[in-house]
Amino acid sequence: MQGATHIRQDKICQDALFIHPVQGKDFALACVADGHGSDRCPYSDEGAAAAVKIAADILAELLESDDPKNMLAAQKDIRLPRLIEAIWKETVQTAYERKAEAQPPEENGEIPPFSYELYGTTLLALVAAPGFVFALQIGDGDIVAIDPDGSARYVLPPCDHPGNETESLCMEDSWKYVRTQLIPIDSTQPAPHMLLLSTDGYANSFVDSAGFLKAGADIYRLWRENGRAYIEENLPGWLSQTSADGSGDDISVAIIAQSE
Asked: Cα dist. 9→119, 185, 251, 257 in Å?
């Protein structure tokens, strides 16, 4: 949802969200990204859109392997983050070159010199599959699990940055700043009933993390009481109101939940 401040300032939404089609799949996959939106990052909405699609495509291919859990375990810390960084940077550089070529020669001066920062964005990805949950994150944003008893907890610890600073895909060797978590699901570690993935505009709208986690738990409770259609109908309005009352920032949320 476009943030309340962005609406007042007539700024486009810098967030992106991608949910991988699940028909015929035994996994659920969702990604969100938050383009930085500053004057130094005028094309960050494009960077965010590229990030979620690239990450989803790479993860979906890994999940099609014969042993996705071990494949992710082997690649999650180095090869996977490096691949996401490399393809994202190649993609945004190509996008910039096309943008520059499309401008008449007399207007070329209006396009800033190329840098990856022009497209700067965070990225969060979440997978739920038989036997495991996998989370990946660079920059701020939150990944929350809600257990069968209705309690909410972070899958990855929330970022603690001063001001508006955050890691970004545009950084040099950004793969080094990617955090991942592979959680096995077995008899000793039951599967969460709901997973919630959100850009930082959501958590920043609350006074503290306890209030944010309670919002996740409330969504789960309302899902259980009223069903999926109720959440789908009301979530946009809740997020818009949350932005207006809180951070004013764009908010993107993806939910993965067990079938009833």
From this structure: 20, 45, 16, 35
What confidence tens digit (pLDDT) does each residue in 169-195 have? 999 999 999 999 999 998 777 789 999
Q: What is the mean pLDDT of the chain?
A: 92
Hey, what CATH class is 4-257 in?
alpha beta
Say how far apart CA 239 and CA 235 lie, in whole Å. Answer: 6
User: Distance between CA 123 and CA 30 in Å, rounded?
Assistant: 11
CB atoms inside a 10 Å sphere around CB 160: 6
Cα 21 to the center of its chain, rounded Å: 16
Sequence spans of domains, the chain: 4-257
Only one residue has tokens 């309005």, namely 237
pLDDT tens by residue, 83-101 = 999 999 999 999 999 999 8
